[in-house]
Amino acid sequence: MGLPSERKHTMPHETLPVHSHVVQFSDDDMLLVNTISRFVLDGLRGGDACLVVATPVHHASLAQRLTAEGWDLVTAQTDESFLALDAQETLARFLVEGQPDRARFFDVIGSLIERAARGQRPVRIFGEMVALLWADGRHAAAICLEDLWNESSQQYAFSLFCAYPIHYFDGHAHEAALARICQQHSQLIPTESYTHLSEQERLRAFTLLQHKAQALEGELAQRQATQERLQTLAAIVESTDDAVLSKNLDGTVTSWNRAAERIYGYTAQEMIGQHVTQIFPPHSEEEFEQIMARIRRGERVEHHETKRMHKDGTLLIMSVTISPLRNTIGMIIGASTIARNVTEQRFLEAKSQQLFASNLVGIFVANAEGSVLEANQALLDLLGNPPAEGQRSATESKTPTAFLEPYLRSLVFQASQGYGCVEPQEILLQRHSGQSVPVLAAVTCLEQTTTCIGFVLDISERKALEQRKDAFIGMASHELKTPLTSLKGFLGVARRLLAVQDQEKILHCLMRMDAQIDKLTKLINDLLDLSRMQAGQLVYREEYVEVDDLVHEVVEGLQEATQTHQLQVEGETGAVVFGDRDRLGQVLMNLLNNAIKYSSQADAVIVHLARDETQVRVSVQDFGLGIAEEHQPKIFERFYQVPDPDRQTYPGLGIGLAICSDIVRRHGGHLRVESEKGKGTTFHLCLPGVSTEAPLTS
Ligand code: ADP
Predict the structure, then answer these.
(1) For residue 394, what pLDDT is reported?
(2) CA 680 to ligand 1: nearest atom
């Protein structure tokens, strides 16, 4: 904006009446100085005294102008027709606690006016003190000062010229204050841009201004609506659970919402201005560059699943959508990111995939009609389906068209039409071969869908155990009854022999009775051991046991009672183990008894002794029936006896090896079988050794 031309210029204050109180709203400091200069020059030329209470900057500019206009300021100051006062200092003289004090104001200003007036001279005052107060935000103090000026005009004759920079009243909030200031002045001068116009031009400008004002009002309303919309959007961004952030094209973060603070652990203050790769795991520069290259091309990166890092170093799995940010002319200036934390979800998915892929439980997903949508390999195996073709993984195995097995289908119906789930229950599952398998099955409907998920657990092993247990009870009664029947028989014989006093035969009878009692005692002991073992109450002594010694003692003891087999010991261990001597002896005795019992056609049992750096091995080898491979893992289970139609019936309860393997495990060792049907069996008893003096022998 250029300086207004002198010719066109019409200053309202050229003909100022006394007691006028003029206010000038200024939008240009240079022009304001012009106005002040003219106000003062007009006064001085007309013989008025001028009192200028202004800022040092305005004083300096004014002095320059007055001198340029040929005015002798020194003379003017000497005869006090020109009084220049600092606005801040003068203000300070009558402010009390930040408010103009009436008495002091009259005191300070009154004496100044009197000095300037020298009795008769009309006085012109230019004051900037109100503007200073306004600029300081002390609006009430400024209005109070305006009031005091108005009040003083009743006591003194002067015309007052105030100036306010118009930008002090920017914004809607200052509308009332502007009106209030306007009310306090007898004359208003709009900003300089309008003061130099002719009447016609001014009217045109006024009309234009009215139009502008109307347009502005409309725009203001629109802006307010936009502002409200923006505030709502900002509130949404702040309250969302997703991290929302923006960055400029070089990656510097420009905004960071509350969810971002929660998810990444950094506050907005910590992140704004930082590079966004601060939340990237190390060595992710390439990912950043690739994303930004797409953004620069104006592309959107949608649901990109990637890793980010929490402030504490924890890795997060995030699903991020990144979009280009454009300015008002459509230029891409950055990117906005919405990121969802899917760490937990992925973790749960991985867990359920693991469960699905595991061979422990058969799992299927079916619709309400009972069509299989998905089934895992464990279920397919259970149903007897051939394994899924090709390289399809267990989780991908599907039987898309198949209907569920009839019993499972009925569970699905119950769940989808009932309470949404069927508690685990035992059913007999029909395999494709027609054979049935006992299973425990449960079905639950996925929330708010008719899709059901079912779990099927093969319990045939448990059922078999239960059956074996039932059979065991029958067998146990039989085994216990047999020696009792013999005892009863021998007692009858002994009684008859006593009648005839046949001492030798009586003695023989008693020996047979003794042997039966031993058998009975062993059976009862085994049963007791089993029940204590089940309850975890088998007590073990802790002592050093010399292995070779123990083996020889047991072998020799048994040899005395065995006529059918030659028991041989080969090798030595020279080792000591730590544990319960009697229990370890019990294991050996059991293995040797079995070896004798199950090799009636053979006449020898060999005990091999061996050791290496870590373990001691006692192997009991027989040359009897042998055990087919499929039975070998099961003979250590409770109540298991090899079913063989060709075999003769052997006495026993099928619990000896279960007790033995428990005892050996409690000693930190293990029991292993090696056997070939028809050729014989070797049981290896392996224990951790505590002495390694002797070299390895086998
Ligand atoms: P049992 O009292 O029936 O002998 P065990 O638990 O000692 O019970 O043995 C379990 C089963 O293992 C036996 O019933 C038998 O079928 C088989 N078995 C054990 N030892 C031998 C062996 N030396 N030779 C062949 N079969 C054996």
Answers:
(1) 43
(2) 24
CA distance 217 to 239: 32
Contact 333, 249 (CB under 8 A): yes
Q: How wide is the angle at C-alpha 33 spanned by C-alphas 142 and 71, nearest 5°?
A: 120
Task: Name the 3-class secondary structure at 323.
Answer: strand
DSSP states of 426-483 as a string?
EEEEE-TTS-EEEEEEEEEEPTTSS-EEEEEEE-HHHHHHHHHHHHHHHHHHHHHHHH
Distance 675 CA to ligand 1 centre (A): 12
Query: What confidence score (pLDDT) does residue 598 get?
Result: 94
> What pLDDT score was predicted for residue 276?
95
Is-contact 264 307, C-beta < 8 A? no
Which of 482, 590, 598 is the pocket-test mutation for ligand 1 (most atoms within 8 Å of CB)? 598
* DSSP 8-state symbol, 648: P
3-state SS of 266-288 is CCHHHHCCCEHHHHCCCCCHHHH
Asked if residue 16 lies in contact with residue 46, where contact means CB atoms within 8 angstroms, the answer is no
Q: With a threshold of 0.70, does the pTM exceed it?
A: no
Q: Which amino acid is at 629?
A: E
- Selection from 224, 219, 187 nearest residue 13 by Cα: 187
Q: Is 685 helix (H, G, I), strand (E, B) or coil?
A: strand
Which ligand 1 atom lies nearest to the CA of residue 683?
A: 23
Q: Which atom of ligand 1 is nearest to the CA of 654?
A: 8
Q: Is 118 left (phi over 0), alpha (psi -120 to 50) or beta?
A: left
Distances (CA, A) of 579 to 23, 656, 659, 666: 110, 19, 16, 9
The residue type at 99:
Q
Query: Ligand 1: distance of its center to the CA of 491 in Å?
Result: 32
Residue 483 has a pLDDT of 86
Nearest-Å Rg of the Cα atoms of the chain is 54
Residues enclosing ligand 1, CB less than 6 A?
594-595, 598, 622, 624-625, 627, 635, 640-642, 652-658, 681
Bridge-based pairing of strands 243-248 and 253-256 is antiparallel
What is the per-residue burial (b if ≥16 Cβ within 10 Å, else e) of 567-595? bebebebbbbbebbbebbbbbbbbbbbbb
Q: DSSP string of 547-604? A: HHHHHHHHHHHHHHH-SS-EEEEE-----EEEE-HHHHHHHHHHHHHHHHHT-TT--E
602 within 8 A of 579, measured Cβ to Cβ: no
What's the pLDDT at 360?
Answer: 81
Residue 47 pLDDT: 87
Cβ within 8 Å of residue 498, ≥6 positions away = 506
Going from the Cα of 654 to the center of ligand 1, the distance in angstroms, rounded, reads 7
* Upper half-sphere CA count for residue 215 (Cβ side, 13 Å): 6
- Nearest ligand 1 atom to the CA of 659 is 6
DSSP line for 233-278: HHHHHHH-SSEEEEEETT-BEEEE-HHHHHHHS--HHHHTTSBGGG
Return d(Cα 80, Cα 117) in angstroms, integer: 9
Q: Give mean pLDDT in consecutive 10-residue pieces for the chain, a chain of 698 residues.
A: 33 52 79 85 89 93 90 86 93 94 93 86 90 89 90 86 78 68 69 61 69 78 88 89 94 95 96 95 92 94 94 95 92 95 90 82 87 86 63 43 75 84 88 87 84 91 85 80 87 88 88 88 87 82 94 95 95 93 96 95 96 93 95 91 74 89 93 95 93 45
Of 396, 405, 695, 406, nearest to 574 by C-alpha is: 695
CA 632 to chain centre: 49
Ligand 1 centroid to Cα of residue 594, in Å, is 6
| CA 546 / ligand 1 centre spacing (Å) | 27
